[in-house]
Design goal:
Chain lengths: 264, 267
């Protein structure tokens, strides 16, 4: 267990070094957030029809996504794992006395936690003080949000690790692994909050795993989903995470059996 | 004329090298199509809920979106040399070699790569444009079709100018260049919606500082015959796209300043 702890903390500290990149990323996210809010503001002023969320709720949803977007499967698999598979360095990783799957899993979690911390802390401060990000309406909502965020980290980690594993087959066919992040961006609610999707699409969105990476925690945060539903939703996140982990481990076991190390 | 031929020779080499991995190229293009198509899904979802934005319907915004997105596709594919200039040329000292060759520096950088898969964006922006043109009740005179084409070309120049600017910054710093993404990728996102939805400071910035409105919103007003409703002189849509090439020329002058300022890393 301590080996995995060491991996996670090494990754975390390594990614904390990229502060200049994080500062530039923060500036970019801030600008995008402002544009998206201006667009929503204009839409709200153009209609009198009832909308599934209020304007202040949309503003909060947008700032939460600008702060925490690094947690969703942004990568088409861990870039370091990709390099290891391509160069053949994966052979060394197989020699280490730790489980390969969990090493990859905790490694990507460490990286995404550090990247998120660097961007989320200034974003919560700036957006909370000046730009309309509201606090959760109750302690219960805040707690439900915290629980769901644990679900996000595990679920997104399982998804990225699964993509990393598939790279054992598709070194040239990277295209497939690039499509999953796009699906995640659309169906997690990053581009448009999920409640705005047409009513007929809601049942489909509800069963997909992507909702658990962004929409569930954000709506729990603002009380748009009552905190009483936190446990069943957390169970849904965990069910998907476990499914992805099982598939990932099975694929990895098959992949290592037929692995041909490229070059020396 | 010779230098132009050299430029196309460069692009030919780049295309041939990408075609060596054909399977990978096709898959990456499809992935790129998906990624840029996601934008339009977002647009469609919002219009499905809200109906219109400040009097603009979905086909009208789609026309704007299609023109800006096509322009960006061309620029994104041709500007890789400038966009990655800091990382691949300045930091490595590779730029010294370029300077030694007896032909235009800017041309060599521009010819570094033609990223074909980025054209994947076109395979979604052109259908969007055609759909918009078909579902709008606009009489397409030859003049209007020419204006749409000019707008896309002007836009491609303008976005290329932004990438040149990003490359030029690398003479002074090779860190935090991502901040330029706000005006490139952020600029595309912002100019896919009509300018009227933004506050005044924002409109002024995108008209006079970085003239994105001139290669999207203003020409679109001309095509939709909405100039008088928007309070804009009726000749403006027809001259506005020229702001694109003008902006590119300006940034190339700044680039020359940067080249003069260049000191090799020595490595």
């Amino acid at each position: 267990m301590s080996a995995y702890g060491a991996v996670i903390s090494a990754r975390f500290r390594m990614h904390l070094q990229y502060r200049a990149a994080a500062a530039a990323g923060f500036g970019t996210q801030l600008f995008w957030g402002v544009i998206r809010i201006l667009i929503f503001g204009a839409f709200y002023r153009s209609t009198t029809a009832h909308q599934p969320m209020t304007y202040p709720q949309v503003v909060t949803y947008i700032w939460l996504s600008q702060a925490l977007m690094r947690l969703i499967p942004w990568y088409a698999g861990d870039p370091d794992v990709r390099a290891a598979i391509r160069t053949g360095a994966v052979a060394y990783e197989l020699l280490r006395p730790v489980d390969l799957y969990w090493t990859w899993f905790v490694r990507i979690i460490g990286a995404s936690l550090a990247e998120t911390a660097l961007r989320a802390i200034p974003m919560f401060l700036v957006a909370g003080l000046f730009l309309g990000l509201q606090a959760p309406p109750s302690w219960a909502s805040a707690g439900a949000w915290g629980l769901a965020m644990i679900g996000v980290v595990l679920l997104a980690g399982a998804m990225v690790t699964l993509l990393s594993v598939t790279m054992m087959w598709t070194i040239s066919g990277e295209g497939v692994t690039y499509i999953v992040p796009t699906l995640a961006i659309v169906f997690s609610g990053l581009i448009v909050p999920l409640p705005f999707f047409p009513d007929w699409a809601q049942p489909i969105l509800n069963v997909l795993p992507f909702r658990g990476m962004l929409d569930i925690p954000f709506r729990l945060y603002m009380g748009h989903i009552p905190s009483g539903q936190a446990l069943p939703l957390f169970a849904q996140q965990m069910a998907w995470a476990v499914a992805l982990i099982v598939i990932g481990r099975l694929l990895l076991a098959r992949g290592t059996r037929r692995l041909v190390v490229q070059g020396g | 004329m010779d230098s132009l031929r050299l430029y196309f020779r460069y692009l030919g080499v780049s295309v041939r090298s990408q075609m060596q991995y054909r399977g990978s190229f096709i898959l990456l293009s499809i992935a790129h199509l998906f990624a840029t198509g996601a934008d339009f899904v977002g647009l469609w979802v919002l219009f499905h809920r809200f109906g219109s934005i400040k009097g603009w319907s979905l086909p009208e915004v789609a026309l704007l979106y299609g023109m800006v997105s096509s322009a960006f596709a061309f620029a994104d594919a041709t500007s890789r040399g400038f966009a990655m200039f800091g990382e691949t040329m300045v930091r490595t000292g590779e730029f010294d070699r370029i300077l030694l060759r007896p032909c235009s520096v800017a041309l060599q950088i521009a010819g570094q790569e033609l990223t074909l898969r980025r054209v994947g964006r076109l395979s979604q922006s052109i259908p969007v444009l055609l759909w918009a043109a078909w579902s709008l009740h606009v009489v397409w005179s030859p003049a209007k079709a020419a204006l749409a084409l000019m707008t896309i070309l002007g836009g491609a120049c303008l976005f290329n100018g932004l990438f040149v600017l990003r490359g030029t910054l690398a003479f002074w710093t090779v860190e935090s260049l991502e901040i330029m993404n706000t005006v490139t990728y952020g600029g595309v996102e912002a100019s896919e919606y009509p300018l009227v939805i933004y506050p005044a400071w924002f409109r002024r910035f995108f008209t006079f500082v970085i003239p994105l409105a001139c290669i999207g919103y203003f020409p679109a007003l001309g095509i939709l015959e909405r100039t008088s409703a928007a309070g804009v002189p009726s000749f403006l849509p027809w001259v506005a796209p020229l702001a694109g090439p003008a902006f590119l020329c300006l940034t190339l002058q700044v680039w020359k300043l940067g080249v003069r300022h260049y000191q090799s890393t020595g490595s």
